[in-house]
Structures are given as C-alpha cells and as structure tokens.
C-alpha cells in the first residue's frame, strides 16, 4: 500500500504536471480565459439561478442553508470527491448536490448529465476557480483511493490499455492528431467543443472507456467515483479552472 | 431557458471603435442528425441575430445549421452617443431572446 504524499512509481513529478489547458491551442485557451466567451459561463449563470430557487417539499433553496455561494462554496469543489459518513464511501460533487436535494430539500434527485445538475455543479465548482486541488486522504478514504489507483494502472478493454499508458507514459505525444494530456481533472465540469456542451468528469471517463473498448460503468458507479478520487489526488496542488474549455 | 452574456464597454469616447461580444445558450440542432432508431431530429437553430444602437441597426447576422451550439459573436461599432444597445436573437420553434445594455459616451 502506498502512503498519501509519497510519489508512486511512474507518477508524473510535481514540476512536470500540466493541466489539459497547456496542451490546447491559443484560440481555445483564449476562449476559456474570457468569461464572456467561455460557453461554460452560461451554465454557471444558470446554476446561480437554480442556487437561489426554492424547490422540493421542504420549499428551500440551496441559498437558504448555504447563503452566498461565493463565500460558502469557496474551495468546496477542490476537496471533492469527499467521504460521506452516512454512506461510508466517497461521493463526488454531483452526488453531494443530489444528496442535499433529497435529504434537505426533499426534492427528486437530478439525473446525471442533466442540464440542471451540470449547471449547479458548474456554479459550485466555479467558486473554487484559482484554488489548489486538495482532496482529503485519511484512513477512511485510503481504500477507495487505492481502488482508483488500481483502476488507473489496470489494463482493460479489447485494446488492453491502462489509463496510465496514455496519460503517464505518453502525455504530450499525439493520438489521432490530438495531444494526449496528463488527465488532470482541473476544469470539470468542462465545456467540450466536441460535445458542444458541458459535461462531467464521469462523462469524460466513460468516453475514454469506450475508446479503449472496455465495458463502461453507469453514471454514479462507485468505480467511477474511486477513479475520480484518484485523479483528483493525482492532481493535488494544481489550480482549479472550472468552467474549463477543452477541444 | 435562454441565457445570454453580453459584453459592451460601459464607457467610451465619442468616435471610438468599441468591441461587442455576445454569447447565447442554444443547442443549434442541425436537423441532419438522427436518433439511434433512425428518426430525424428536427432542426432547431437560431436564424437571425440583430444588434441595434439607439434604434439604428449596427449589426445583423443570418445563422445556418453548420454553426456550433451556443453561438458567439464579436463585432465592433463606433461609439456615437450615449444610449442603449439591444440584442435580439430569433429562431426556429418561436425562439426569441433579447438583451439590453447601456453605454455612456463622452
């Protein structure tokens, strides 16, 4: 078992870690940097409206408990996935929002990748922009982190590829004309130009699994959350960019 | 829900060329795509964008199916006088959205 903070064999050293942003064209970087050109900001705008809207049987809005998101939600997304004591496993930001909806607002959970859930997630994550990724690793989360790491280094699918073979060993090289990034989830949910829409980290992971012809997981599956946890830990200290733009 | 982001400088000198940026939330469904069962997904695009400056049209664009989702326009005009700029997007299925901003010119 590898202890938190130790460098794992084959891991990209801190000084060489680079966000997907650094692999993008000048034009795409400009699109992300300008809040009036970044299409992800449309979702943030919508998320702000949803944040203040009363909903569910409890008739409460997110803002009724959490207040001003720019203060209360600052740095929160940088700490997710986080351990949930009741469920005894880590939950990602989308799941946390849905837990809040069900338990506190007594409203039906929002579907994964639905416009509303992406908008709320983007709005909350936007409050962490510029802050370093800092997921908590302790005795409770360690087993889940180890599962995520094992998944990252496990060869799978008909192409028999592990995540690490592209993103640790061959980052910066090209795959079908596109730069292979280091797979640091710094800007999620991201506006992906290929998708023409905002998408979650799990959508991206499922995409990659299709790419290596592996059997995918359902949205919200524990395996995907564990992989998210590992990826966030692997990107610890890197700056949050939400809403990111990716090609 | 149509969300739009409009960026116009709040102040400008008379005669100055100002840059205007607009971004609107819209799927821009081409009408050429099909569902997994082969049914056509009907076209749903913005057809026209118009910007008027104190009632005078300063920019107009016709949009077509090849334009990406969430159309983004950057254009420029000359700051002639203080007043309002209105932005109007219209499209398929009765889509209509409008935004207004003010500019003060000295």
Labels describing this entry:
heterodimer; A: 247 residues; mainly alpha; Cytochrome Bc1 Complex, Chain D, domain 2; 2 domains; three-stranded mixed sheet; two-stranded antiparallel sheet; 38% helix; 7% strand; B: 106 residues; mainly beta; Immunoglobulin-like; five-stranded mixed sheet; three-stranded antiparallel sheet
Would you spell out the secondary-structure blueprint of this structure?
The complex is a heterodimer of chains A (247) and B (106).
Chain A: H1 26-33, H2 40-52, H3 62-66, H4 69-72, E1 82-84, E2 89-91, H5 93-103, H6 115-126, H7 142-153, H8 163-167, E3 174-175, E4 178-179, E5 190-192, E6 197-199, H9 201-211, H10 222-234, E7 245-246
Parallel strand pairs in A: 5-7
Antiparallel strand pairs in A: 1-2, 3-4, 5-6
Helix pairs in contact in A: 2-6, 5-6, 7-10
Chain B: E1 4-7, E2 11-12, E3 17-24, E4 46-53, E5 56-62, E6 72-78, E7 83-91, E8 95-105
Can you offer a commentary on this structure?
Chain A has 2 domains: 133 residues, Cytochrome Bc1 Complex, Chain D, domain 2; 87 residues, Orthogonal Bundle (Cytochrome Bc1 Complex, Chain D, domain 2). Chain A is built from 10 helices and 7 strands. With 106 residues, chain B is an all-beta fold. The termini of chain B are far apart. Classes of the chains: A mainly alpha (247), B mainly beta (106). Chains A and B meet through helix 2 of A and strand 1 and strand 3 of B.
Q: Which protein chains are joined by the largest interface, and how many residues does each one contribute?
A: A-B, 13 and 16 residues
CATH architecture of chain B: Sandwich
Q: In the CATH hierarchy, what is the superfamily of chain B?
A: Immunoglobulins
- Give the name of the CATH architecture of the largest domain in chain A: Orthogonal Bundle
Mean pLDDT across all amino acids of chain B: 94
Head-to-tail CA distance between termini of chain A: 36 Å
| SSE order of chain B | EEEEEEEE
Give me the secondary-structure category of chain B.
Answer: mainly beta
* CATH class term of chain B: Mainly Beta
Radius of gyration of chain A from the CA trace? 18 Å
Number of strands of chain B: 8
Shape of chain B: elongated
β content of chain A, as a range? 5-15%
* Assembly type: heterodimer
